[in-house]
Design a protein that fits this description.
Blueprint: H1 4-11, H2 14-19, E1 45-49, E2 52-55, H3 71-74, H4 84-110, H5 121-132, H6 154-173
Antiparallel strand pairs: 1-2
Length: 185
């Protein structure tokens, strides 16, 4: 007979818990562990203005959390009966062999030789490697540097752009105004 102390130690034993089939569900009935990144782990950033950047907002949780999806919803189900494509392929190969045999028999009867174009395994292998060859990816210039984030919000960038357009218009028209007027607010 186990004492209460031994029973508690066994129940909360990490090794026993690891083997157990029962898993704690996450919030909202979620199956499996929560994989949401913490604020410092987030890569997507958003400019809030004044040269400051903050992590972008989280996505909404899905509506179907905690529901098991049927296999038929997750995977493409077969539309034809089992093996139909294979049967067609075998029938086509058989018909091809029959035509070749008839052509050879006709050539023998007429006294000539039948021209046969046999495909060797080497030819088949060459063709297969050509089909399986990976397309070469476009080379990226090693000196390419992406434009750094300005830290300005969309609104601030728009203001700067419009100030520049205003200055250009005034230069074209010949309007002289102090430089202070063309600075973004």
């Amino acid at each position: 007979m186990k004492t209460f102390q031994e029973f508690i130690i066994e129940v909360y034993d990490k090794e026993v818990q690891g083997r157990s089939q029962i898993r704690r569900t996450g919030e909202g009935g979620r199956i499996g562990a929560e994989r949401k990144k913490t604020e410092p782990e987030k890569r997507r950033m958003k400019a809030v203005g004044g040269g400051k950047m903050v992590p972008a907002k989280d996505y909404k949780p899905r509506k179907d959390i905690g529901q098991q999806r049927k296999r038929s919803e997750r995977e493409q189900q077969p539309t034809q009966e089992r093996g139909s494509a294979r049967e067609k392929q075998l029938a086509a190969a058989k018909a091809e062999r029959k035509r070749a045999a008839q052509a050879r028999a006709a050539a023998r009867k007429s006294g000539g030789t039948a021209s046969t174009t046999k495909t060797t395994s080497k030819d088949v292998e060459k063709q297969a490697t050509k089909l399986l060859a990976k397309k070469s990816a476009k080379k990226v210039n090693p000196n390419y540097k992406p434009q750094p984030a300005s830290g300005k919000s969309r609104e601030e960038r728009r203001q700067i752009r419009r100030q520049g357009e205003k200055l250009r218009r005034h230069l074209v028209k010949g309007i002289n105004k102090p430089a202070k007027e063309y600075e973004p607010r």
